[in-house]
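ugh finaly. both done.
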Amino acid sequence: METFLENLAKVNDVINTFVWVKIGIIILIGTGILTTVITKFFQVTHLKHWWKNTIGNMFDKKVIGHSKDKSSISPFQALCTALAATVGTGNIAGVSAAICIGGAGAVFWMWVAAFFGMMTNYSENVLGIYYRRKNKNDEWSGGAMYYLKDGLGSKKGCKTLGSVLAGLFSVFAILASFGIGSMGQVNKIVANISEAFDIKAISSITVLSGVSLYNVLLGVLIMLLTALIVIGGLKRIAAFAEKVVPFMVVIFVIGSLVIIGINYINILPALRSIFITAFKPVAALGGGIGFVISTVITQGFKRGVFSNEAGLGSSVMVHSNSNVKEPVIQGMWGIFEVFADTMVVCTMTALVVLTSGLYDLNTGSLVNDTLKDSTLVASAFNSVFGWCNIGQKFIAVAMFLFAFTTVLGWSHYGSKAWEYLFGEKSVIVFKIIHIITVIFGAVLSSSLAWDISDTFNGLMMIPNLIGVVVLCPLVAKITSNYVKRKIKKEDVKPILSYDESIQADAEKEVLATK
């Protein structure tokens, strides 16, 4: 078993380095910049509009009300399900890992990735709604595989390329659902719960080459809970997500604000460190200046995309199930998704760590050798809420909710990719496999589970971004059409779907509510 894991780590390291260091980050940020420019900085120039039409419509029944159509879910349910998959360990352990490896400056590059990632996510969702279709069960199916096959594939000489990339994306999405969507999340759940709620009578017993029996039992419990919800399909996942996600985000942010408020004297030094070390990393990171800066930027971008998933083409698979007719409307929910995930939750986590005193802003290192990136945030909470280890226990529970909902969200992503490759009748096979992989997250080492997740993220990102880049003119056209109709109030025909029948039905509804 140990030899297998060592060989797996070596192979993964080679692929990971190629995907992320060689080409991934350049394509990721390049696409973000491109989509931002072609939409004329929509996330900034139309800030008031997208804010009003997303979180500003929270109490609109059309947004939060459950859809009577069994084939779709409400925009808010789509957001919550997408956030369930994105707001996970990346927002807690991922941020602390980025700081530990890349220093405080990595947080700045997470912000940069998020700023441009807003429009990447927007573009993915616009294309997802535009190219979606109904499957044999009368359910909406959408995602990168469809705009790769029907969008990229419609370009001259690109039919085969589009089909091949759609197939590759689906394969990588399934593998990613086992990594970021299962093993990586469960690994952090188990690490935090076993430390915060240790039961020595069980944790002292080791099985499977040194793995704690406690970890194995936790993995089995999580696997059973996952099965109860996942087998029920998207409707059950969405119903669970819309109840849990808003609650867990609000509670985590409130707890973070309390800690940051108590340590308010360190807020300015923390912010100063973020901006300064983004371009001038501290010596503690080691290596030449070029290598160090590259490490800081890489960590910021990798952890940023791990957290908000902009560019992966993943969340579009659930956004495409929304009952909206306007591609741009769901695109705006994609902007808010990245904003909420990175600009709010990740920033809170970063400030908790950097103001807690557990991270030395001058040396760029942890003040205690016993601290680990996986439990750093818990220690920061414990520094304020130390009575009976309430802070650590709170983070363990928060990590469980964050990561568990991510497992549920990614089960839907993987099932849609499986459906594309093998048909909807065999999706139950994927769900069973996905549920079983939960146990592996409980027994794998933290670093290996994390690295595998990074690799699968990068692999599915590449074909998706190729499709987004090629279809950027279409995104610009759809956005311009929406702005003319909804903001400038011009009388122009709406652009809603590639399919003439879907376009006709959607157009009737859009014009009826004009």
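ok and the 2nd:
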Amino acid sequence: MENFGEILHNNLKKYFGFDSFKGNQEEIISNVLRGNDSFVLMPTGGGKSLCYQLPALIKEGTAIVISPLIALMKNQVDAMRSFSLDDGVAHFLNSSLTKNAIAKVKKDVLDQRTRLLYVAPESLTKEENIEFLQQVKISFYAIDEAHCISEWGHDFRPEYRRIRPIINKIGNAPIIALTATATPKVQHDIQKNLDMLGANVYKSSFRRHNLYYEIRPKIHATKEIIKFILANPGKSGIIYCLSRKKVEQLAETLKVNGIKSLPYHAGMDAVTRSNNQDMFLMEEADVIVATIAFGMGIDKPDVRFVIHYDIPKSLEGYYQETGRAGRDGGEGKCIAFYSYKDIQKLEKFMQGKPVAEQEIGRQLLLETVAYAESAVCRPKLLLNYFGELMEEGCDNCDNCLHPKEKFEGKSYLLLSLKAILGVKEKFKSEHTANILAGVPTSAVKTYKHHHSEFFGAGKEKDVKFWNAVLRQALVAGLITKDIENYGLLKLTEAGHNFIEKPFSIMLTQDHDFDIAPEEGVASGGGGTGAVDDELLHILKDLRKKMAKKLSLPPFVIFQDPSLEDMAIQYPVKLEELQNIVGVGTGKAKKYGKEFVEVIKEYVEDKDIIRPQDMVVKSVVNKSGVKVYIIQSIDRKLPLDDIADAKNLELMDLIEEIEAIVSSGTKLNIDYYLNEIMDDEKLEEIYEYYREAETESIEAALAELGEEYFSEEEIRLVRIKFFSELAN
């Protein structure tokens, strides 16, 4: 084709009004027009759809676009029709169409008016559609969101794996597969499944310079989110939660606090869901709180922040979701709240799934943990995960802006590499870390690795430390993960060279989020890092003095999170003190007077401007549950019955009771304790807490013995203890 470039540029201007192509769009389109298979890996916002839309308008015949979402197809068809005078230029074929509409689509296609036909994979497998498509001259097949093919992708759909046999049935034509996220493993999987290992591969860089990445410990996450949004008024944002229930709760809480927010999840009726999406796009709402059902194909260029209330199940999902921020090249803040408890919850959800699926899910979760806890530049880690190397730090993530201490890693790396060779490069990070730290897990014993020379060779450090070293060896390119058997560690050429001639490499210490528990009663650590350390010190001294005077353990008066919150919020009146985490009316009245006086004096002395967004209003319904619990306990109802009535697990109910008691309300659960425990046991736990230095359950279990006491028993007696002594 002569003047290929000229023809492409003329058509680009004619149909889409652009003067020039982005990135490697031109090469990709030329490859499609030449009839070759193409694999396109292009991050969100890079202009993927143009790579099949333009060649479809130029090439003779109809291009079949296989896409997973009905809403997405409709958006794209509307967009294509806006470029053409003929509405028949683009159509979709899916379950949402009536019989008449389907007949109209088929007529336009057979009359050769239609250049793009969008089809859902489920519709593609229907016999009548296969027979219809056999009569059509097909220019090429475009497979959008191709990561859906791979079980290792974040959005696996079994029907996607049947695409190749159906293409063979309908009739062969070139294929272009497109995705915004694929690790080398997923890419290989897609190409293999589509029988296109010989395709020309086009990869765009995953680097998005305008995105800021940060991980925060999940403490008072709701409060932090409200503060963040109020500090960024009028900006558009998306907040992702894993459960529909959390989406509803959080959207409601934001609304009560004066933020224009709406929920979005698959359990809502289609009309409401679609309206909420439109209101967000039309800027009638600033924030959408959503499950991952939201966002595919959302073309809103000015999303200024993406917050993950819950850490996602995979880094691919995380990258795709954060990629919805700052698509116009402007500011984009990506903040995720992380607590290892959430990872354990996700692992629990996987139980009951097929073993292979659990194994994959677990591997993907481990990658997420590694990313969250790492102190290495975050874009560097993400790019490495997608098979791309980035030399220097980004200077635009929490780890680059607040670097952690570095230490000489030469000897640790050397030992790690030798251990990987010692187990014949047939094991994953976790297993290798267990060997080095000398942890005899069942897998280590099964493979007799507790007899290996490397078992315990690094026992002065723990498993977490060795996992961090292995992760940084990956980023440094000394090892790689096998593609066929994903996760098995292999040495690269650079790794072998390092063993021959070791050189100095500085490593960073991981973040330790284990000390950061979730929101709720018995937790240590608080706030946002904006804690006023000097004031905290003064408050701890005051608490110590009072504890001595009243001969009580200090945590009975106020727990650490309460003091930390005071050192962030500076309450100077008793009413304000009631809004501090874990305080409430009872506690404020009983112990608060001295504390607010000390804080008031401190604030005046230091001329401190206090945060005015201190009172986070809670949703009424929530307090309805609390009222019900208090009334039911007054009526001496068994806790199991109260839990059933409110559709709660017993542990969830215990958490609710802990929150009520820690806020200063007296509850008498003796009637229930006497039924489930003997006096001796009860007395032993109660006495333990009289002497204890911390309210921690783990410490109590360790001291009292897990074989004799359950977590449930300890938590219930601790409630009695707090209720009687603290309130």
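summary for the 2nd one i guess: Confidence is low (pLDDT under 50) at residues 515-529.
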